[in-house]
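Fig. S4 source data, part A: sequence.
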Amino acid sequence: MKFLQSTAVILMLASSAFAWPWSNDGKKSAEDEARIKDSLLQVEVRNLQREVETLTRIRMQKADSLEKLDAKHWSNRYAESQMTEEHQNKTRELDGRYSKLSTDLGRITEEAMSSKNVTEEAEEKSKSEEIAFDALNTQVKLSIEKTLGDVAGDYPVGMNARLLRLKQANIEAEKKVPNTIAAVQGFMDDLLKRHEVTYTQFYGNEVSQVGSRPDVNVTRMRLGTVFLGEVANDNGDVQALMRSGALQGKIFEWNAGLPTEMATNIKQAVKQVGSGSASNIVAVPLDVLQNKAIKNSISDVKELTWTEQFHAFFKKGGIVMYPLMLVAIIALLLFLERFVMLSYRGHLGRRFTKTMDALVAEKKYDEAASLCLKKDTSLSMVLFAVLNKVNDTRENAERSLQEALLREQPKLERRMGLLAAMGTIAPLLGLLGTVTGIITLFTVITEVGTNDARVLAGGISEALVTTETGLIIAIPVMILHGLLSEKIEKITSELYVQSTSLMNKVFGKEKVD
């Protein structure tokens, strides 16, 4: 714009410069000047018009640009509105879904809690039923085990079959998953079989599994569980049920050592039953009251004297009984030696004490010392140690007294440790004999075998003889050791009292610095 204005001014000056020299008239000059001014004004107007047009065009461009921006702005506003509306729609949709999910979650939570409660109730019920089942199974197992323990003392006939049935029932009850029904069935079958034996009778040939001759072919006659007699087919030995049962519990005991007359009668009765001509009445040896006097009266066993009983008892204990007897003899000799020695060395005579007090009160110390030398006791030796230093200082007298006490103390306590050792050794030797006997018993059972529980019980009882003997020896020995220890303590205390009293009487009660 400024460039056009400058060009117009330059043209106007150039035209005036060319016109001026040839101008002769001032009027023309003014007209020319006016025309120049008009030309300039026109040029300026045109310039202004062009400038206005340019500005208008720029304004139009700006307006177009602004309109475009405004259109873009409204387009953006519209898009924003659309997005806001979509956002609100999605928010409402999400709120609806959230509400629905919250409702579903609450419902599912309630259902889960209800299901959990039902599950817990079912678990508690299952646990209670399981506990009840375990208690029932335990009760069944205890009943089976108790019956198994009672079989050994029950009726001997059919004992092996009963043991097998009860053992199988016990196995069923002790399985990882117990079969209680099978265990109960086996237990009840055993009870029924046992009652069947009680209320039935039998006669025939069997293999004996009880009494003193097991595994021998016998002719057996059984009347329930009241009487059972067997006659061996090889040599005619007779054995019968002597004890029908205890007042508490069931005990059935065989006796093969019947008197000759009773054994002959039973043999004849069994043969007559076999031939179908039984007409005699036979005395059956049944110990209903469980009295040993009755048992001995119908048995052919000789009553032993106490000496013979001691020899039999000593023989049952085996070789260990010899060192046990040696321990008992040594302990007895030690006690007698200690008792005599303490009675002599520890004698505390009142006459001697009174005489000694009188001599010391009169300060006749030489006579008192002579009196002590006449008595060979611990008290006299201790008092002599004080009187021997009567002309010396109290400190030297106390030293002499201590030396005397130290000399007498070992004499009083001599062999007491050995006596206590005898009391300790005796039960140990008894235990050694028991262990040795049980080892021997099980070795024999392993090699030979036995189906009689009484053999095992008898062997164990014999093995326990040494333990019983050891305790019988040890208990009195420990009592005697305690009595001697108390006596020694009494003597020692009296020695300290008498020696301190004499020290105070001779040297006075003041202490030496």
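Fig. S4 source data, part B ends here. Residues 319-507 form one domain.
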